[in-house]
Amino acid sequence: MSIPPSSEPMIAYFGGTFDPIHYGHLRPVTALAQEIGLHQIVLLPNNVPPHREQPEASPAQRKRMAELAVQDNPLFRVDDRELHRTLPSYTIDTLEMLRAEKGWQVPLAFIIGQDSLLTLHRWHRWQDLLNCCHLLVCARPGYRQQMDTPELEHWLAYHLCADVSRLHQQSNGLIYLANTPLLPISATEIRQRRQQGIDCQDLLPTAVLNYIDTHRLYR
After folding, report:
1. Which of the four CATH numbers 3.40.50.620, 3.40.50.2300, 3.10.180.10, 3.40.190.10 does domain 11-184 have?
2. Any idea which GO molecular function terms this record carries (predicted)?
């Protein structure tokens, strides 16, 4: 389903474990916002990620770190709805909930990395995602461009969009490959640095690092 939107601006959602949130999350999506004219990005910290190891920091700590990371940036806000779930957090469930709340006139987008695009066919109900939103894909260092099968390549080509204006004119159904910076920063690297007593100042906002120090996280 895709119908012309009203004059309401597109809202983009960016999910992640954020254990902890860092510049590898924030800087590419900030560049994405500038590239396509986004005015709001909503961070969605995950509670129980279905495909990943469980977070070290608690849901409340990861929410607070996300809030601190964007506290002075009006582009961002934090939505903690997934942190209240006790079952695995599936993206399609959240997107269907958001679409029901926002209606079908508002363009909604979900931001993923190139690595997630390549494995999207393994996500729960992946073929329903574009019924709810656009997919905005940020480049990731070291990942190939080609999908696993000719069928997936065809699916990608069918939905691919290079015209930014269409993202704003259509409520869902498109995939946009963004020309965002490649930042080889990972939360795993930050946690390992912390355990080894190596400085992380260049990898994440100072307010987040101070919170990590205060609460003695990732030791």
Report:
1. 3.40.50.620
2. ATP binding; nicotinate-nucleotide adenylyltransferase activity
